[in-house]
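Forum: Protein Structure Q&A
Topic: Joint prediction for protein chains with partners

I've read a bunch of threads here and the consensus seems to be that you should model interacting components together rather than docking separate models afterwards. I'd like to see that in practice. Below is the full input, 576 residues plus whatever partners are listed. Could one of the regulars post the assembled result?
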Amino acid sequence: MLKRVHFPPSVLPYLLVAPQIIITLVFFIWPASQALWQSMLVEDAFGLSTEFVWFENFQALFRDDQYIGAFKRTAFFSLAVAFVSMSFSLVLAGFADRVVRGAIVYRTLLIWPYAIAPVLAGALWVFMFNPTLGILAYGLEMLGYEWNHQLRGGQAMALVIMAASWKQVAYNFLFYLAAMQAIPRSVIEAAAIDGAGPIRRFWTIIFPLISPTTFFLLVINAVYAFFDTFGIIHAVTQGGPANATTILVYKVYNDGFVGLDLGGSAAQSVILMILVIAMTVLQFRYIERKVEY
Amino acid sequence: MVENRPWLAFFTHVVLLIGIAIIALPIWITFVAATHDEIRMTQVPLPLLPGDQFWVNLKATLFGRGLSGTETAPVWLMMLNSLVMALGIALGKIAISLLSAFAIVYFRFPFRMGFFWMIFITLMLPVEVRIVPTFEVVAQLGLLNSYAGLTIPLIASATATFMFRQVFLTIPDEMLESARIDGAGPMRFFFDILLPLSRTNIAALFVILFIYGWNQYLWPLLITTDSDMTTIVMSIKQMLEAAEQSPQWNIIMMTALLAMLPPVLVVVLMQKLFVKGLTETEK
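Posted by a regular:
Agreed with the consensus. Here's the joint model:
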């Protein structure tokens, strides 16, 4: 943690940490404590008086079917994004791992969607699936399937899952490929000599050996789907139709800035913070375990 | 590989090419839309092959006043705003993280661990979960519609501080001992020894943070109301809304292309640094 030798004590270290600490205090700790405080206040309809109500905002949230619905929807959305994106990447990484020459070319062609902003990813997908113009919506109609995500909740959900997974494939692919390439070749060769074919080798050797990566990616993808997909939802569906794609981060924004329900929005913020802390702890536990290996 | 199966090798390439095609499809459609004129982009079915209007659309997008019927800043100004924001966030994060990691590793002082944990907390509080109170703080400080408001609230970074701490811990103690024998003070040691030794890590982190900064969406959306301060990533959403009345998809998709170009170029051209940065910041 600390060096064996260090510089003599002075005011210098305080000056060095000052910028980081001041920004943390002003823009992180203070707003977070404000959120905690506001989450226990109720404002009347005209914003004239506020009342301290302890945990009533939280109780109200958990009695609210819309909030419970958003919670379940977020869980489903995160799992779906993690599953679609990770399985797609796993297949591609499994094949890319077999390529002797040109693997780097495939990697280059697969990783760049990482750089695209979520809201842009949303814009590209909503354009392809635009009910009147979109090229894929048109193709589906040719096949006799009517696509209109502006009216059908299930289709809207499918669309945001596709857009969110598409963007995350790059990240998962990179980590899966690195994990597979770290497996000693001798292990795989030994299995090949014993007569195990490529598919058998994948399921009995490669897949179990990269399970720490799978777990790590599961946490990362869940965090991504929970917090980084605001732009996608905002661009593609605005939470609609009829709240079919309102996930938790979208609801915090919508209740706070559009609905102006400050107490309720602050209570939602506090719940989200607790969720982030839980996920961060999970991620760190995993990393500690990896160090032991 | 371990065995010679020509058919399997062939199949491998086919699967990878299909994967790349699926990944690239949305970009291809965007590119094609940006190369046709406005009229063609309202006729079903939309084209699958590029047209000849690329340069016309590029010029109209970069220097025009956006979509007809809306009052927005020209796209070149939005790209400049995005660039200032991305560079401000990336360089700011790197600078303050280097300094605080240096203090935490090379000095022993009261509250050292307290500061360490305070920085750690920022890791747990993404903007998305504390938007309303953070917005109020920034509004009270009078930072709305300014570059300072766009960058400063986002530059505290636990990840970067941790990464530099790891890097500094791997630098042998003898470096410090010999520097002190030669009479170098702390800042001299920092600039002449630590900075050059962590050059690659700084570059790798810069790549990741540039992408992070360029792609900010919710934060600029909240604190900029003046159209001259909009960033290009934000403008896409406004254009999608305007598209309900005036569907100029050629212009919208050209703007989308321009918005994704800088970060994509950074990833492709600096792939090695990008991969290094991505894997190191997760440790």
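The longest helix of chain A spans residues 65-96.
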